[in-house]
Structures are given as structure tokens and as C-alpha cells.
Amino acid sequence: MRRIFCALFVVVMCLTSFGVYAQESPLHTSKYHKLDKATLNKVKQKSAFILLVPENIPNDWTVELKYPYPLDITKPIQSVRLHYFDKKENFMFGIEQHKAMGYKIKKETLDIRNNTRTIVEEDFRFDVSGEIINFGGMEARFTPWANHSIGGFLRWVQEGTYIEMESLELTKEHMIEVAKSVK
Question: Which region is the signal sequence (predicted)?
């Protein structure tokens, strides 16, 4: 259920230095909105949490600010989601971030028989299921995709920020290497 929810409601969080500093030809046209350094700094300043970004990303990759969109820097940003694309614009992974404590999530329930919709807001709780992975003095959890041999979900708390990475392209080991570089 969580995997389906995440796949359908991919909403939030993380940034990379690769997309921020990557150079591209003026003739290059991308179907994605490339996150620039100035926008990244604005997002970091307005985030209600410490926004952390991976540093172990190829220079020719691109990062897209998926959420919040459109970006409104007049309001505090409660969560962020970044998408990372390789040089051929293939989606490689996404990172979502928000406060680990004091963050509210909304859960929606649809009752088709009665044609009703219920939205409940509750405190965020870290999901402790999955394989325990230790790196950099932190404990993370990895959950593989159900019907896919590569990738999955890697989640951890760092500096009071909840971080969740998901990928269908990166191996578990590569996801961990990226996670180790998040600063």
C-alpha cells in the first residue's frame, strides 16, 4: 500500500549539487525544468527543515524541483521533492524531504460504494520496516520494489530531516553511495 501511495503521490524532497552546477549547451533543450543554484538557495532558505543534497552525482545529470510547484517563496516550504535525470534525460531517482518531527501528513480514503472521500491529517511516523542499513553513523531502512530486481526505497533521518530516496534504475548499493554523500 505504501509503495503504491508513494508511486502515485510522489510529493517531496531533496536536491543535488550535480544539477545545480551542471553546464549545458545553449542549443540543448530539455523537457524538464532544471534547478539552478539561485533557486536551490531560495528553497533552502524557505524550507521549514534543513534541506540536504547529494554531492555524489555526475556533473552531466540534471535535477528538477518537482515539488513544490509552482514555487512560491513567499511561504515556508514544508516538503521538497527532487527528481534526478541522467544526461539522456532518463529518470534515475527521486528524493523527498521534510521535518522528521512535527510534520503532518494527509491520508485520503475513497469509499467508492458510498461515493465519499475522507482526508485525515496525522503526525508523520518513520516507517521502521525493511532492511536495516548503517552508514555515516545513521540507521536507514531499505525496502526493495515488489516486482523489480533493481532499486527500491531508502529512508533515513539526518539532522532532523526525513529523507526518502526511490529508484527503479539504481542498485541498492548505488543508492547507499548517493545517500552517504547527502550533506
Answer: 1-22
